[in-house]
Amino acid sequence: MATEQKRYAAAEVRDILRRAEQKDKPTVAAGDSTGLSAAELLDNAKDLGFSPQDVQTALVEYEQNREITLAEQELRQLSYRRLSTHAIFLTAVLGTLTVLGAWAAAGTPLALIMILWATLFLLQLRGALFPNPEALREQAKRRISARKLKESGKQLGSALASGAAKLMSLSAKKIDEGVKQLDK
């Protein structure tokens, strides 16, 4: 009877309902898709009293944010790849110079160059491990814009080529018709 008198906070209610939902859920096969389509989401939100425009706006913002997050992950991966390439190359050069004994022959100028190079490597390491979130987000947005611009440029090129081919075909037909009329 004590549980009937107890009051549950919102977080506790969510946890209880989440547990109940998990127990009621049948096991989903690997190929089955679950969830709602955008249209189903809009219909359900409308039934719950949400404005369709607000839900559509939120859906677009969610998709844009997801796309930016994916682009940020790609940029981080590229940063790690550049860093590892730089580390391998720096290690190879240092190893080669050590094996060849170039340190003794070249002396201070070579050591200064290698110290500068190692400093640049450490700066790149810091940038890869601890990127500036705002700068990374802006770079991700620019990457998405560049990708969309490239795709739209390809589409425009194919549309222009197709249109030019159709225009030339029609022009050739008109010219043929004009020549036939002159021959008569």
Set down the secondary structure blueprint.
Layout (H helix, E strand, L loop, with lengths): L1 H4 L4 H15 L13 H10 L4 H49 L1 H5 L1 H22 L3 H51 L1
Helix pairs in contact: 3-4, 4-6, 4-7
Task: Walk me through what this model shows.
There is one protein chain. The protein has 184 residues and is an all-alpha fold. Helices cover 85% and strands 0% of the residues. The protein has helices at 2-5, 10-24, 38-47, 52-100, 102-106, 108-129, 133-183. Helix 3 crosses helix 4 and helix 4 (52-100) crosses helix 7. The longest helix has 51 residues, at 133-183.
Fill in the keyword field for this structure:
about 180 residues; about 85% helix
Structural class: mainly alpha
Strand fraction band?
Answer: under 5%
Count of separate DSSP helical elements: 7
How many extended strands?
A: 0
Radius of gyration: 32 Å
Question: What is the 3D form?
Answer: flat
H/E element sequence: HHHHHHH
Outline of this structure?
This protein is mostly helical and 184 residues long. It has helices at residues 2-5, 10-24, 38-47, 52-100, 102-106, 108-129, 133-183. The radius of gyration is 32 Å and the shape is flat.
